[in-house]
Amino acid sequence: MPEPRVLVVSSSLRPGSRSRVLARLAAGSVTARGGVAEWLDLAEIGDIPICDGETCWSHPAVQAVQARAGAADALLLATPVYNWMLAASAKNFIELTGRKWAGKVVGFLCAAGGTRSHMAIMSAAAAMMLDFHALVVPRFAYATGDDFGDDGAPSPDLAERVERVAAETVGLARAWPAIRTESPA
Ligand SMILES: Cc1cc2nc3c(=O)[nH]c(=O)nc-3n(C[C@H](O)[C@H](O)[C@H](O)COP(=O)(O)O)c2cc1C
Questions:
Q1: Structure pTM?
Q2: 86: domain range?
Q3: CATH code assigned at 142
Q4: What secondary structure does DSSP assign to 19-78, as a single string?
Q5: For the chain, which ranges sit under pLDDT 70?
Q6: 78 lies in a domain?
Q7: Total domain count for the chain?
């Protein structure tokens, strides 16, 4: 696969979001690595419903994000950590689009208030792997406020960690179709 399409999803709804900075960095790195970075910011979609497992499927905003996820070869999900877990906005996005992640390469980028929540993505990563048979990128970028300067710019060390996630996402997305035994739905 010469140019994998990577959907970079920014799930924070906060105007001054740090995970959005990670997502932007990752999108740039995907492009630099020869991938096609597709950008999806949930803060820009005002009317996306909470998943109810029934009526949500016919909602135009849900169908639109499902189509975006379905067209991707890989997904990079940038999320805040809330209450030791993914933020509800990120979890809701997975609930609304999850089947579209099946069999794809999936990576995570996290912004948190402190260092102790670094396992926050694990239940989502496990669901991706065990339920959706996705290939989870074996590193993720985790940032706290200390990783950003007073001007909001990411430190060089954080930028390198994000670049590694993006590089491995693009590389795995190129290799994975020849290895997996089941094509994405
Ligand atoms: C409701 C709420 C819960 C939070 N829970 C945690 C937490 O469990 N662990 C943590 O390290 N930070 C926690 N934080 C801090 C956020 O992860 C931090 O502000 C992060 O930068 C948010 O992501 P964003 O900047 O992309 O919006 C919480 C913040 C909020 C508003």
A1: 0.97
A2: 5-178
A3: 3.40.50.360
A4: HHHHHHHHHHHHHHTT-EEEEEEGGG-TTPPPP-SSGGGG-HHHHHHHHHHHT-SEEEEE
A5: 1
A6: yes
A7: 1
